[in-house]
Specification:
The protein has an 18-stranded mixed sheet that branches. A hairpin with a 5-residue loop joins strand 2 and strand 3. By secondary structure, it is of the alpha+beta class. It is elongated and about 100 Å long. The chain is about 25% helix and about 45% strand.
Length: about 425
């Protein structure tokens, strides 16, 4: 009886072993097939003919979806290393170039297969010799860039799913040029950058939270030029679209931490072809036509919460304006800014003979008040051991040049300590 039971157990065990081993063999074959398939895909992607075919397919799809002409000389994709795009351009129907570039390099921390789970983790993003031309035609409410993005993202059959989880550790910029022409407003803005580097510690696009270790910009330049009076137009939205827009829930507020911002040899300028500087004021600062060059700035501990509540520390700022007037040094222990107030605590200003400190507060209805600074911005000042040269004061408030007592004492130095409240023109 014992022998029969033992034989039954042996048969059961012998029957189970082939089943297990067969399962493991099939599992091994499946894994081997997947591995061979992945290797084959990677090897195929390295072939120049496949790269060319893939590039043509991608550019054709984008061209048809956006009603533009997309061209790329070379597109190289490595699932484990990254993406390299050479000599690419996007041209509109009117033969206007939206964007052109020499090189876009993307290095991966996680391979491209993580895109299946909507994760894109980049260790490096390099952008070189890029030209971006954003144009809003007269009578239109959307720029060519907005049209391109809308056309590319419009898909009526697409359901909203998990957002892309994008992470970037480092961004390198070289020879960047951006032109923004709004013909409704009659304003042309130009942004140029020789080189730049951005190091990111954390980013969450969905929650709009960013921690940036440093931003270093070499020879950045910004110029805003007004060439025509603004032409107001009605937004091209249907009544239904307007209702949907008003019913949209507000997104997450921006929360940003920037540990260090450095600008080297920058330039900032504003010009207005409709309001030419009078000859008698050419040696004074004209807020409609001015520029600052040789800008060197170091800003630390910048924080933006809830979209616009800003705090920062200004370590150093030097610049020279278009009249040759020098700002030798400005620093501020604490900068506080919101939509209606700006506070400068522990402020130190060195203009050569003029030296000003200690606390300033600017109050305004909104930022449009700065277009008429002397009449619309209220100043609160607590001055300690400050010295002001009358000629320096006239440089920033040119209306004082019409006051005889100020004009006759322009080289005088005034020692100031105390408090002031009111508008600059008071």
């Amino acid at each position: 009886m014992v022998n029969e039971d033992q034989n039954i157990d042996d048969k059961q065990e012998n029957g189970q072993h082939p089943t297990r081993s067969g399962l493991f063999r099939w599992l091994g074959r499946i894994l081997m097939f997947i591995g061979i398939l992945l290797v084959a895909v990677v090897m195929l992607l390295q072939l120049s003919s496949v790269q060319t075919w893939l590039s043509s397919k991608v550019t054709k799809y984008i061209s048809e979806a956006t009603n533009t002409t997309v061209q790329a000389e070379r597109l190289k994709i490595s699932p484990f290393d990254g993406i390299v795009l050479h000599n690419f351009s996007i041209t509109g129907q009117k033969n206007d170039t939206l964007i052109s570039g020499e090189a876009l390099n993307i290095s991966l921390r996680k391979n491209l297969f993580f895109l299946i789970n909507k994760q894109l983790d980049l260790s490096y993003l390099g952008i070189r010799n890029i030209r971006l031309n954003i144009l809003t035609e007269n009578g239109e409410s959307r720029s060519n860039l907005i049209k391109f993005i809308d056309n590319l993202s419009t898909n009526p059959n697409k359901t909203k799913g998990k957002p892309l989880d994008l992470k970037v550790k480092e961004i390198d910029l070289a020879e960047i040029r951006v032109r923004i022409d709004n013909r409704n407003k009659g304003v042309l803005q130009s942004i140029d950058l020789t080189s730049g580097n951005i190091l990111l510690e954390f980013m969450d696009l969905e929650c709009k939270e960013f921690i940036i270790t440093s931003i270093v910009l070499d020879r950045p330049a910004f110029q805003k030029h007004t060439y025509e009076y603004e032409c107001n137009i009605d937004d091209e939205l249907t009544v239904l679209q307007r209702e949907l827009k008003t019913e949209e829930k507000p997104g997450e507020p921006l929360n940003l931490t920037l540990r260090e911002l450095a600008i080297r040899d920058g330039r900032f300028g504003i010009s207005n072809g409709l309001l030419v500087t009078e000859e008698k004021y050419k040696n004074y600062l004209d807020y409609n036509n001015f520029s600052f060059e040789k800008i060197n700035l170091l800003l630390t501990d910048l924080r933006i919460k809830n979209d616009f509540d800003l705090t920062a520390k200004l370590e150093d700022l030097v610049a020279t304006d278009n009249t040759g007037f020098e700002i030798r040094h400005i620093s501020c222990d604490t900068i506080l800014m919101d939509r209606s107030n700006t506070e400068l605590r522990g402020l130190m200003v060195d203009l050569g003979q003029s030296k000003v400190s200690h606390f300033f507060k600017l109050s305004y209805g909104d930022f449009s008040a700065f277009s008429d600074f002397v009449n619309k911005v209220i100043l609160t000042a607590h001055l300690e051991n400050s010295v002001v040269r009358m000629d320096d004061l006239m440089h920033f408030v040119r209306g004082l040049s019409r006051v005889p007592v100020v004009q006759h004492n322009r080289n005088e130095l005034i020692n100031l300590s105390g408090r002031y409240f009111g508008k600059v023109n008071n």
